[in-house]
């Protein structure tokens, strides 16, 4: 069976939540998924500072687990360290944002992203960096912090519904992406999509499915695009 590691590049999730997410992940794919977090790094990633700060932890986790898994998913919708991770290991590494945005761009001409209150500018930059700026209808904010997301909260669901409806009705979105993995792990995508009448994508399912598909097909990133990091220089990174 294909083995996929979902790597959370921080330390803000307790053991119960990590177990809950691992259970969900294994229900969504035929691969065997292990969810794990780093020993250090930020509690959550809600700024460019935390986005950059967590990359060292992510790379350390990748190096520790590289031989044990067939592919990896970065467990943050900001895709922190995606290019660096691909330089660092030979096996496929998937960023949930990039995978989901590109899926949305294939399913619709215009898509919107729902993000938490502190990250709308970074989401716009991310989408333009992925070459999808012309298809972006809007970035809308769900007034919620990452650490405050309660997966059983109907209030949070309704916040997503309201902003998704505004994205469709006011901004012309033809599909909607929840731009936070804590929101995605609430697993209310089908329910929201039914009410919206347009796709409301699931970054958990899409990123895990992409990693498993690439691994099963023997695909990984190009070494022209992502040159392998020098082993001679690696020792100094973790001194």
Task: Kindly summarize this structure in a few lines.
This is Hydantoin racemase. It is built from 11 helices and 7 strands.
Features of this protein?
single chain, 239 residues, alpha/beta, Rossmann fold, 2 domains, four-stranded parallel β-sheet, three-stranded parallel β-sheet, 11 helices, 45% helix
Structure, described:
Pfam families: Asp_Glu_race (PF01177). This is Hydantoin racemase. InterPro entries: Asp/Glu/hydantoin_racemase, Hydantoin_racemase-like, Iso_Racemase_Enz_sf. There is one protein chain. The protein has 239 residues and is an alpha/beta fold. It folds into two domains: 3-95 and 206-238, Rossmann fold (3-Layer(aba) Sandwich); 97-202, Rossmann fold, CATH 3.40.50. It has helices spanning 15-28, 48-53, 55-65, 82-88, 96-107, 120-129, 154-171, 181-184, 189-196, 203-216, 231-234; strands at 3-8, 32-37, 71-74, 93-94, 111-116, 136-142, 175-178. The strands form two sheets. The chain has a four-stranded parallel β-sheet, sandwiched between helices. Strands 6-5-7 form a three-stranded parallel β-sheet, with helices on both faces. Helix 5 crosses helix 10 (203-216). It is globular, with a radius of gyration of 17 Å. 47% of the residues are buried. The mean pLDDT is 94.
């Amino acid at each position: 069976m294909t083995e996929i590691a979902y790597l959370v590049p921080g330390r803000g999730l307790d053991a119960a939540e990590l177990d809950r997410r691992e259970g969900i992940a294994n229900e969504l794919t035929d691969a065997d998924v292990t969810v794990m977090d780093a020993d250090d790094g930020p509690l959550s990633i809600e700024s460019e500072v935390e986005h950059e700060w967590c990359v060292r932890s992510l790379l350390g986790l990748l190096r520790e687990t590289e031989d044990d898994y067939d592919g990896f998913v970065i467990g943050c919708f900001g895709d922190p360290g995606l290019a660096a991770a691909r330089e660092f290991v030979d096996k496929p590494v998937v960023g949930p944002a990039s995978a989901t945005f590109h899926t949305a761009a294939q399913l619709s001409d215009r898509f919107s992203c729902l993000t938490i209150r502190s990250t709308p500018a970074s989401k716009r930059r991310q989408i333009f960096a992925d070459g999808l700026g012309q298809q972006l209808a809007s970035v809308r904010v769900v007034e919620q912090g990452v650490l405050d997301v309660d997966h059983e909260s109907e209030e949070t669901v309704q916040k997503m519904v309201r902003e998704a409806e505004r994205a469709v009705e006011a901004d012309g979105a033809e599909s909607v992406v929840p731009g936070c993995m804590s929101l995605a792990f609430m697993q209310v995508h089908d329910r929201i999509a039914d009410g919206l009448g347009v796709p409301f994508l699931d970054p958990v399912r899409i990123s895990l499915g992409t990693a498993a598909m690439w691994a099963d097909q023997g695909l990984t990133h190009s070494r022209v695009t992502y040159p392998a990091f020098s082993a001679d220089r690696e020792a100094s990174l973790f001194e």
